[in-house]
Design goal:
Low-confidence stretches: none
Bound molecules: zinc ion
Number of domains: 1
Order of helices and strands: HH
Number of helices: 2
Oligomer: single chain
Length: 59
């Protein structure tokens, strides 16, 4: 079964990494609006994915 949440989490991770490697405004301490959006999407999906991992381990 394809893991949709995991796929979206990985895609967001790649998108964020692709942005920060090409963007001249994003640094370790500051993000441009696009980088911030990409980071927030990645962080949200990562939280959801890790939370689900924890739930599954408890069963
Ligand atoms: Zn940026």
């Amino acid at each position: 079964m394809p893991d949709d949440l995991y796929q979206r989490y990985q895609a967001a991770h790649r998108a964020h990494q692709a942005h920060t490697t090409t963007c001249t405004h994003c640094t370790d301490t500051a993000r441009c609006p696009d980088g911030q959006r990409a980071y927030e999407l990645f962080a949200r999906l990562q939280d959801a994915y890790l939370a689900r991992q924890r739930d599954q381990r408890r069963r």
